[in-house]
Amino acid sequence: MNFVIVLLALLGSVWLLAVVEGWTTTGRLRPAAPLLSGLAHLGRESIVPRTPDRVFFETAPVLLLIVAVLGAAVLPLAPTLVIADLATGALFINAALAYVLVALIMAGWGPNGAYAMIGGWRFLGQLIAYAMLIVMPITAVAMRAESLVTTVIVGSQDGLWNIVYQPLGFVLFFIAAMALAFRAPFDLPTAPGELGGGVDAEYTGVRLGVLRLARLTLVITLASATTVFYLGGWHGPLLPPWAWSLIKTLAVAVSMLLAGRYLPRIREADLMRWCWTLGIPLALLNIIVVGLLVLVVP
């Protein structure tokens, strides 16, 4: 039963995010647009490149969607509303999201096209740089909760959310989440103005529809992780716990969409340099500060 409820909540969140994305792009609020777009993709021809690696080409969109759903499986909407309350839930999220890299490399290599391949290799460098900015803030969160169980992590924020307790960790995790979801200004794998769509360039029809669904699902999963780790999860007044989880998740997801609209795309060399020279030292500082607070503050 939890599986069905969480899956429906995930689909509903993806639909709302697609509506908001369409509104930010066209200036028109059209609730039916995601459904119409999906039907349009079903009706279009799925063109296959001349010399693809067929296994990689066909598998990449599906794998990206599976990875996004797997990550959401350990993120609770309420104290008892979670698909799998694993003892190592926080680590499972990081392990599942590592396969985003595999999916993007497959999407870049599979079509045997120059722009797609460049996009895939760009994401390889991007994730190598920013993977540590996912793991290290989660480490600090687990230190405060003294657990890797996601429901326990939310419970540890009953009196004080982690965004207040460790704001530096929140900022670093949010930036890394945008990079992992390759949203602007971290959209180097797609880069419409440079690569003509990059890893998306060779996909059409149903395959492109699945790829776009997977990207939005990935954004929702990362927004939900941000909510669980830093925004107190289901904690909030008056409304039911699941409602607060969904409201916070959608707020984070929309902020990811809007932030990129006002920032220029970053060069890949600058992106990686800033992470190694600034991001990782700040993440280490965050761990040290949280460790001292855990020891000093009862």
From TrEMBL:
Cellular localisation: Cell membrane; Membrane
Pfam families xref list: NADHdh
UniProt keyword terms in alphabetical order: Membrane, NAD, Transmembrane, Transmembrane helix
Major place of residence: membrane
Transmembrane segments: 60-84, 90-111, 123-143, 163-182, 216-236, 242-263, 275-297
Originating species: Marinobacter adhaerens
Membrane-topology descriptor: Multi-pass membrane protein
Family recorded in the similarity comment: Belongs to the complex I subunit 1 family.
Entry GO terms, CC: plasma membrane
InterPro entries: NADH_UbQ_OxRdtase_su1/FPO
Protein name per UniProt: NADH-quinone oxidoreductase subunit H
Molecular-function annotations in GO: NADH dehydrogenase activity
BP GO annotations: aerobic respiration
